[in-house]
Amino acid sequence: METSKHCPNCKGPQQNFRPADDDEKKYLIDKKELSSADANGYWRCKGNEGKCLWIQPYFNQGNGFTLPKELFG
Q: Could you list the mean pLDDT of each consecutive 10-residue stretch along the chain, which spans 73 residues?
């Protein structure tokens, strides 16, 4: 499942986003102290040939952030 959204890291046209994977959800729960339910609502940008590190809640880009490159890049 994918959706198109604006990515602040990629800029330009809308990018495809996918639901956060298990490792990304674990990071959100452990490091960002989100609940499992909240972590399940995050989507990651697939721009830059899948290398973009932007992740955000589906309906709230303002709560998004760039994942650490050393863990997810």
A: 95 95 98 97 96 97 96 94
Rg (CA), the chain: 11
Report how far apart, in Å, the C-alpha atoms of 28 and of each of 13, 18, 20, 45, 50 are.
27, 15, 10, 15, 19
Closest-CA residue to 39 (of 54, 24, 60, 59): 24
Against a cut of 0.90, is the pTM above it? yes
